[in-house]
Task: structure prediction
Amino acid sequence: EVQLVESGGGLVPPGGSLRLSCEASGFTFNDFWMSWVRQTPGKGLEWVANIQGDGSVKTYVDSVKGRFTLSRDNAKNSLFLQMNSLRAEDTAVYYCARGWKVPPGVYFDYWGQGTLVTVSS
Amino acid sequence: EIVMTQSPATLSVSPGERATLSCRASQSVSSNLAWYQQKPGQAPRLLIYGASTRATGIPARFSGSGSGTEFTLTISSLQSEDFAVYYCQQYHYWYTFGQGTKLEMK
Result:
């Protein structure tokens, strides 16, 4: 059974940093793209970033480029999102999702339960 | 950015009836479209990919159609567990989601 478990969310002041983690199980982790998708009541669902199975390709939505860094540790079946220079508009539930590659993109076939990030002073 | 527009925002349907949800893309996404179901307090769940292919374990009452800019998700006979919010998502050029259609019990 595919499982994705996020952790690392919390309350952080504007300009602060946070590192999200996602532990995967039930599939061959390094065979799959992995993604972060966030959700807010106002903006709905928003794709944040993708990383290829071997970590060689990473893509980001423009609003987080230069602030967020996506990485993975295939030996530990883990995905990470380092978030720096956080802004109020980054407040959201962040979901880890497995990506199924179908050129030109991926769709998200399994999702974790999400972790809440709140950026506020 | 490709904008995905879903209609209606809220759809009221009785159990056992058919529900038809629409999704429109601001430019062609070919068949690179997925549908998700989300219940309160839960993560989205993949229903359909490639515009019309059901994901693993999804009941046959869910069907998707369309290509280019116009897409439809049809639930042929609504069950109580189908009342939820439904999102479309394109993966043709980057990734964008619609704002969702809330399917509520009439």
Observations:
- Chain A is about 0% helix and 60% strand.
- The radius of gyration of chain A is 13 Å.
- The mean pLDDT of chain A is 96.
